[in-house]
């Protein structure tokens, strides 16, 4: 049975509320249409991620739990190419893509990131890692910018939206170095591993936490550069959209800062942001949204249009 927009929005709202409290809180700052479209996009992204990782809302699936499984590439294309029935996540994508005019290329780029994870991909260089971060997060930033009214031909602003996704993902990777290693995944470039004299199999060894702290500092340092570029683009958005983006940037930037501040102890307990931290990030965003950030060049940053 075909679901109405109201039904899909309600389902997507519940999905983001349970899947990401950070994004859910930041999204409440958006105007209604942009907020609903952000929820719809998130629901598709979350489902694709869960199918790829065999999880439920980013967590290990309880026994017997069901997810919206299936061929994410085929179902996505089925949703975009016509009006045939598809599961809710793909119907949500169909709705937001048609409503906001999200470029098909950005959707395809995001799917490519899931394909890398399914293939057990591992970066050889930091450039490889940046390309991966674009696929799994930068492309989402680009899609969100279009939802917020950025012209699909405005390459500089879209590039800066992609930059924010890269900043988020680099901070997430730094936080999850041990968790990923224990799951058999490694996003640390092979070049870094070789210089440090460790292997992928060694990353979860507590004896190597000082080395991981060094990796995290390098990732967070690069994330800060992407974050600064993204803030230039955020200043071009409408006031409410600008505040929402800055709030999200503050929340995820806080994750990277906390990981680096804890040093080798960063992986003894997963770094999280409390409700108070999130409210503080929103308060800072309200002030930041009134100012004008330095006009930073994107020279040397990942080019999402060269993929």
TrEMBL record:
Q: Name one GO biological process term.
A: carotenoid biosynthetic process
Recorded hits in SUPFAM superfamilies, A to Z, give: Terpenoid synthases (SSF48576)
TM region positions: none
- Name the source's superkingdom: Bacteria
Keyword Manganese among UniProt keywords: no
CDD domains assigned: Trans_IPPS_HH
Q: Indicate yes or no for the key word Glycosyltransferase.
A: no
Q: Which UniProt keywords apply?
A: Transferase
Q: Which GO terms describe its molecular function?
A: geranylgeranyl diphosphate synthase activity; squalene synthase [NAD(P)H] activity
Q: What is this protein called?
A: Phytoene/squalene synthase family protein
């Amino acid at each position: 049975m075909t679901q109405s927009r109201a039904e899909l929005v309600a389902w997507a709202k519940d999905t983001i509320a349970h899947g990401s409290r950070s994004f859910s809180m930041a999204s409440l700052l958006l105007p209604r249409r942009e907020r609903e479209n952000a929820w719809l996009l998130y629901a598709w992204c979350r489902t694709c991620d869960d199918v790829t990782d065999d999880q439920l809302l980013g967590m290990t699936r309880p026994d017997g739990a069901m997810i919206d499984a299936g061929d994410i590439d085929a179902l996505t294309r089925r949703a975009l190419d016509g009006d045939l029935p598809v599961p809710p996540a793909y119907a949500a994508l169909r709705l937001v893509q048609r409503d906001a005019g999200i470029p098909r290329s950005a959707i395809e780029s995001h799917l490519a990131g899931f394909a890398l994870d399914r293939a057990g991909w591992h970066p050889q260089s930091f450039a490889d890692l940046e390309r991966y971060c674009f696929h799994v997060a930068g492309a989402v930033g680009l899609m969100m910018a279009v939802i917020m009214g950025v012209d699909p031909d405005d390459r500089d602003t879209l590039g800066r939206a992609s930059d924010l996704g890269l900043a988020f993902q680099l901070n997430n990777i730094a936080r999850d170095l041990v968790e990923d290693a224990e799951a058999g995944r490694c996003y640390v470039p092979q070049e870094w591993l070789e210089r440090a004299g460790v292997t992928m199999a060694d990353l979860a060894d507590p004896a190597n936490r000082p080395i991981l702290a060094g990796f995290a500092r390098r990732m967070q340092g690069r994330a800060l550069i992407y974050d600064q570029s993204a803030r230039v683009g955020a200043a071009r958005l409408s006031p409410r959209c600008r505040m929402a983006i800055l709030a999200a940037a503050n929340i995820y930037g806080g994750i990277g800062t906390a990981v680096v501040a804890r040093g080798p102890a960063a992986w003894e307990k997963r770094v999280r942001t409390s409700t108070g931290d999130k409210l503080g990030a929103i308060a800072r965003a309200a002030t930041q949204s009134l100012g004008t950030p330095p006009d930073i060049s994107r020279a040397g940053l990942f080019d999402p249009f060269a993929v």
